[in-house]
Amino acid sequence: MIEILKPAELARAKDAGALVAHILRTARSRATVGTNLLDIDRWAREMIAEAGAQSCYVDYAPSFGRGPFGHYICTAVNDAVLHGLPHDYALADGDLLTLDLAVSLGGVAADSAVSFVVGESRPAESVAMIRATERALEAGIAAARPGARVGDISHAIGSVLSAAGYPINTEFGGHGIGSTMHQDPHVANTGQPGRGYKLRPGLMLALEPWVMADTDELVTDADGWTLRSATGCRTAHSEHTIAITHEGAEILTLPR
């Protein structure tokens, strides 16, 4: 299903996006050496409830997971990159942490992710990988405009990631979003320009470049959810929800 949202729905999407941004910014500021992943999950649950919003994750049970997810935020550490199931783990100095959050507010969902290094250590390779996903996200957003194709976004993202030397997995990528978290169209993190669905004002997309340092192969944890690099290398993930407007793309998951 591909939804084209009406102006009133897009206004609610801005509220949902601002809430996601607020929760991620707050969780990031609190996540220090010694913080337990379960505490981050608790913070997310409390902030979602305080805002009168609903988690898109806690009851999420797709075919690829061992559902329902049962938690409120994805917490992926080091070699984990997607669907990181919160568990009893205390963050260490130099850990690369990805927080991925989706909530629904007023009947519209928003989705965003951020990767960062915990503590005082700043491993150069980790910082470079995070920045590459951020640049790829910026490129994808710049390519998202009315009349463009999904392939134009994928090509823009993939060009940045490939130039930075990272293999690209196309099994998981960006997606449409609206009244539900995951919708068509799929937005792969590499692709051919000029191909795919034509973008229209009112379309919302969650763009999410992610990479693994030296592989494009994923393995699944025993928890049935957490996806890790097959080689144990580090990973990074950046994501924003955008709305296609008559002028271009508006980022909805920025702090107010």
TrEMBL record:
Chain positions recorded as a divalent metal cation 1 binding sites: D100, D111, E239
Gene Ontology molecular functions: initiator methionyl aminopeptidase activity; metal ion binding; metalloaminopeptidase activity
Key words of the record: Aminopeptidase, Hydrolase, Metal-binding, Protease
Binding site for a divalent metal cation 2: D111, H175, E208, E239
Domain Peptidase M24 residue range list: 13-245
Listed InterPro entries: Creatinase/aminopeptidase-like, Pept_M24, Pept_M24_MAP, Pept_M24A_MAP1
Reactions performed catalytically: Release of N-terminal amino acids, preferentially methionine, from peptides and arylamides
CC per GO annotation: cytosol
Uppermost EC category: hydrolase
GO biological process: proteolysis
EC number: 3.4.11.18
A Pfam family: Peptidase_M24
Positions that bind substrate: H83, H182
Cofactors: Co(2+); Zn(2+); Mn(2+); Fe(2+)
Cofactor notes: Binds 2 divalent metal cations per subunit. Has a high-affinity and a low affinity metal-binding site. The true nature of the physiological cofactor is under debate. The enzyme is active with cobalt, zinc, manganese or divalent iron ions. Most likely, methionine aminopeptidases function as mononuclear Fe(2+)-metalloproteases under physiological conditions, and the catalytically relevant metal-binding site has been assigned to the histidine-containing high-affinity site.
Top-rank taxon, per record: Bacteria
Stated role: Removes the N-terminal methionine from nascent proteins. The N-terminal methionine is often cleaved when the second residue in the primary sequence is small and uncharged (Met-Ala-, Cys, Gly, Pro, Ser, Thr, or Val). Requires deformylation of the N(alpha)-formylated initiator methionine before it can be hydrolyzed.
NCBIfam families: met_pdase_I
PANTHER family given in the database record: METHIONINE AMINOPEPTIDASE
UniProt subunit comment: Monomer.
Family from the record: Belongs to the peptidase M24A family. Methionine aminopeptidase type 1 subfamily.
Name the UniProt record assigns to this protein: Methionine aminopeptidase
